[in-house]
Design brief:
About 4% of the residues have low confidence. The protein has 615 residues and is an alpha/beta fold. Helix 1 packs antiparallel against helix 2. 49% of the residues lie in helices and 13% in strands.
Length: 615
């Protein structure tokens, strides 16, 4: 997080930000705003705004005091009341072995605004308290055991009485610090009963990672080596941090290492290795003589020959994680199912809602029209696509289905090197027309016009994620939102990892209201909690649409609805009334709290629909 996030703000923008943060009771944000004002020339209006901010902070703290648990009645019972969140994080590292201090820290965190980072730290503090209690219970158990042994050696009768606290604390099976939802326990049990081989399929946001973490802990405690394969460096960072924090709770020391992303495979194999797939596919991950468990995150990604090389036969136990165990080619049948077996547990939207592990959601399909020029361009490219597709299938025997195999064959033909030059020309014409048709849809002017009408919905949302097909479309959307008084940023693949982290930090802190991205947020990336998704360019992939939905489906502390707006061009390949997203629509129609088709001209109805945040 930058030290002065509001350094570029004008006074008017600072005043608007104050009003926004005051309404949201964002005490941390107000303090940073107050700090910024200390750097400004102390004119009357600056002093007046500073006084108003101080008064707002005081009122928030008074409200917090009213919510204090019984027994905590004064600010002296809140030693961390003045701490910024980053100070609280540092304090946690300092006191993680002190149960009493951890309880005070936990009480403070529960009084704060429940942002994603706050909830994450609460989970860590609760886990640390639980670990201390388990350690104390284990010590008491072993103290009792030593007494029993001594009595036996002395041939003395034993009279051992456990008090009511002892009875619940002498359970040696509780060495795994990962707390699981009921569905996660069932998933882990099903995987175990299938011989520790299988795929766990669950909608994005439900908590697949926790299932894998529990399996990982059980295995390293029993001397197994665990390798976690991920598709990207950003996912590697997320896994590594979570595992690093988790193994601190274990009684013994365990070694965790990374491979890929600039990290080499360690000569001495660690207990847990987090490997990026493009590196994992080039090296032997499990050394001879070791028992191994492989966990493949986003396992559907590895159904290609070059990535499947990482799936070593030496791993006796195998767990695949995915939101949807499907591909558009034959990679599932050819590589993944022979290795991981079948899906051993599946959690869809309906089940996840019943288990209360994702937020209830509503979804609006909003149809716009092409202008005359766009319509003519689309029809020309669409006609060429259909004509070339038929020719490729009928004359050159390209696979008709699945779609991924069709595309794979077309790409192969387009690269040339075959005896029939006409086939290459045909394939290249298809690829060119397909790309241009998609661009016309993605950049349709009326999609941006429709987005403008949704600005009031974005203003009432906690955070908004916008998905586009291209960087240019994302930039156009962000410019529109900035002009509408919102703070928005584009997140693109040409940014450095540090730049992306800064955008995410600003988004989580509420400095940015909207993050817009072309494809980058589709899979795997841990995005700060948002409650509104706007999809400007929908995908033909059921998996990709489910991934996008998952970005807003994480549970909300106030139980508000997650909302999704899909803006599509009517009469095109992305129109649901013409069969687009058929599998996706079938899935969500059974689970959505509300879903409705709108014409983009129905502005009041659309706004009312998307601004409804409670069941």
């Amino acid at each position: 997080m930058p030290e002065r996030p509001f350094i570029q703000y004008t006074f008017e923008q600072l005043a608007d930000k104050f009003t926004e943060m005051k309404d949201k009771e964002d005490k941390s944000g107000l303090r940073r705003l107050l700090e910024e004002l200390t750097h400004r020339k102390q004119k009357n209006r600056i002093i007046s705004l500073s006084n108003n901010i101080e008064a707002a902070i005081k009122k928030i703290e008074e409200n917090e005091m009213r919510r204090l648990p019984v027994g905590l009645n004064t600010t002296s019972d809140r030693p961390y009341i003045q701490f910024y969140f980053y100070d609280l994080e540092n304090k946690y590292e300092e006191i993680r072995g002190d149960k009493d201090e951890l309880k005070l820290l936990l009480a403070e965190l529960k009084l704060r605004r429940q942002k994603q980072r706050t909830r994450t730290l609460i989970e860590k503090v609760e886990a640390s308290i639980l670990a201390i209690e388990r350690t104390q219970a284990d010590k008491h158990f072993y103290d009792c055991l030593e007494i029993i042994k001594r009595k036996i050696r002395q041939n003395t009768s034993i009279a051992l009485t456990l008090n009511e606290n002892d009875e619940q604390n002498v359970d040696l099976s509780s060495t795994n610090p990962v707390a699981l939802y009921p569905w996660q326990k069932r998933a882990l049990d099903s995987w175990t009963k299938k011989g520790y081989i299988g795929v766990i399929e669950a909608v994005t946001g439900a908590g697949k990672t926790h299932v894998a973490m529990a399996a990982m802990i059980d295995h390293i405690l029993n001397g197994w080596k665990v390798v976690i394969v991920v598709p990207s460096v950003s996912l590697q960072d997320q896994w590594y941090k979570k595992i690093h924090d988790l193994i601190q709770e274990l009684p013994n020391e365990y070694v965790i290492a990374r491979m890929g992303g600039g990290q080499s495979l360690p000569a001495q194999r660690p207990d847990v290795l987090v490997a990026v797939i493009n590196s994992a596919a080039r090296y032997r991950l499990l050394t001879e003589g070791n028992k191994g468990l492989i966990i493949a995150d986003e396992c559907h990604r590895y159904g290609a020959q070059q990535w499947a090389q990482a799936l070593e036969q030496g791993f006796e136990r195998r767990m695949g994680l995915t939101a949807t165990f499907e591909r558009e080619d034959d990679g599932i049948e050819k590589y993944l199912r022979p290795y991981f077996g079948e899906v051993c547990y599946s959690l869809g939207y309906s089940e996840a809602l019943r288990e209360q592990v994702i937020a209830n959601f509503s979804i609006a399909f909003i149809g716009v029209s092409f202008n005359h020029q766009e319509e003519a361009e689309y029809k020309g490219h669409d006609e060429t696509c259909k004509k070339m597709r038929s020719k490729l299938i009928e004359k050159y025997h390209v696979s008709e289905t699945p779609y991924g195999e069709f595309i794979k064959d077309v790409i192969r033909l387009s690269q040339g090197g075959n005896s029939d030059g006409e086939a290459t020309i045909c394939a290249r014409r298809y690829m060119t027309s397909f790309s241009k048709r998609r661009q016309v849809i993605a950049n349709a002017a009326n999609k941006i016009a429709c987005l403008k009408t949704l600005i009031p919905c974005v203003q009432t949302a906690e955070r908004t994620i916008l998905f586009s097909q291209t960087k240019a479309a994302a930039e156009d959307a962000v410019k529109l939102l900035l002009d509408g008084g919102l703070n928005a940023k584009v997140l693109s693949s040409d940014m450095t990892m540090q730049e992306r982290k800064c955008v995410f930090a600003d988004f989580e802190e509420g400095v940015e209201d909207v993050v817009a991205a072309p494809l980058l947020l589709d899979e795997g990336v841990d995005v700060p909690a948002a409650d509104l998704a706007i999809i400007l360019a929908s995908s033909r992939s059921n998996r990709q649409m489910i991934q996008r939905m998952g970005r807003v489906l994480r549970k909300k502390p106030d139980e508000r609805l997650a909302r999704v707006a899909i803006i599509y061009v009517k009469g095109t390949v992305e129109d649901p009334e013409m069969g687009a997203h058929e599998a996706f629509v079938d899935v969500i129609s059974q689970s959505a709290t509300r879903q409705q088709l709108f014409d983009a001209k129905e502005i009041p109805s659309i706004r009312n629909f998307l601004n409804t945040m409670k069941l």
